[in-house]
Amino acid sequence: MSGTPRAFGRHDGDLSLLDGRTIAIIGYGNQGRAQALNLRDSLGDRASIVVGTLRDETWARAEADGLAVRETADAASFADVVFLLVPDEELPKVFVERIAPNLHANDALVLASGYNLAYGGIAPPADVDVLLLAPRMIGRQLRELYEAGKGFYSYIAVEQDASGRAWPTLLALAQGIGTLAEGGGAFELSARDETLLDLYHEQGFGSLLGTTMFLMLEVGVEAGIPAEALALDLYLSGEAAETMRAMAELGFYEQSRLHSLTSQYGGMMRTLAFDREPVKRHLQLIIEELKSGAFAKRWAAERDADYENFEKLRDLARQANPFSPIEERIRAAFEQAHERDAATER
């Protein structure tokens, strides 16, 4: 695919195309629950929604939400549209053991992540539709936006069209989960590119943001700025989140005009003086390992080793984390201030 991806809006999805169909939501975590409830509310009696999950708290929660619940294999066999919303690392085993043996010709598989398609974690049979419907929104907010009548952005793609109706089905499902509503929309992006983008964002931006936060705190404290003031300014105040929101609403450059001239001058001057080459090399290495499959192989080996190194990394992060104690001090200070306010008002 080249050029600007195709974009789809609220008039592109026809819910009537789902009339009489049975939709299974496999997995009832954050995304599974939000998408199941949105589909239920969008479709009403047009289609049947069934949740496939383990007999654990997710089963009880789905029942409490008023949804029909079945064992995973039974739900897959019962439905002709199957949403695969279990974690990427668990999906290959679940797919081989419980999903694949229960698929029928012209069924539709719907994935919220392209990871297992891109790296060969699953191999769907040739006689089913394979659809990517990947919201760029966490499950809780996906549900809240739907309830407010607002849309959100998603990436979509038809990876395999066995039935001849894969695109209409995909767009109807996109309409059903709410992504095409006003304020949202869907961009066409292959499973391979969605996976590359998702991992690149997480590993590239995530590593740079984490490192920047640590260094800002370290250098600022060395310069005599209170750690509490630094943490408040960097993220706890919410100002950084508002800046990102303004970028989304106004544009990357245009939002800068909301800040003072001093801020604009200082930010642009320091950006031009920044040594970009080490950062660029860091990002290039990430892209290379993602495209070659080296990261996926490393992550698979880590899972096979029962996450031994992963747990060590988590322990290291917890031990090296300077922010939680600072956050506790800030919250305690403001709690005392609020208590004084309450006492004065009495």
Explain this structure.
The structure is a single chain. This protein has two domains: 7-189, Rossmann fold; 194-237 and 274-345, no CATH class. The chain is built from 15 helices and nine strands. The protein has helices at 30-43, 57-64, 72-78, 91-99, 115-118, 139-147, 166-177, 191-222, 227-236, 239-250, 261-273, 277-292, 294-304, 308-320, 323-345; strands at residues 7-8, 22-26, 48-52, 68-70, 81-84, 108-111, 129-135, 153-160, 185-188. A nine-stranded mixed β-sheet has the order 1-9-8-7-6-5-2-3-4, sandwiched between helices. Helix 5 (115-118) links the parallel strand 6 (108-111) and strand 7.
- CATH class placement of the largest domain: Alpha Beta
Mean pLDDT, all residues: 95
- Number of structurally distinct domains: 2
User: What is the helix tally?
Assistant: 15
Here the CATH topology of the largest domain equals Rossmann fold
What overall geometry do the principal axes of the alpha carbons give?
A: globular
Q: Span between N and C termini?
A: 66 Å
CATH architecture of the largest domain: 3-Layer(aba) Sandwich
Low-pLDDT residue spans: none
Q: Could you tell me the radius of gyration in angstroms?
A: 23 Å
Instruction: Order the strands across the largest sheet as they lie in space.
Output: 1-9-8-7-6-5-2-3-4
Strand content of the residues, in percent?
5-15%
Q: Give the class from helix and strand content and strand pairing.
A: alpha/beta
Report the CATH superfamily of the largest domain. NAD(P)-binding Rossmann-like Domain
Give the helix level as a range of percent: 55-70%
What string gives the helices and strands in order? Answer: EEHEHEHEHEHEHEHEHHHHHHHH
What is the quaternary state of this protein?
single chain
Q: Give a count of the beta strands, DSSP E runs of length 2 or more.
A: 9
Largest sheet: 9 strands, mixed
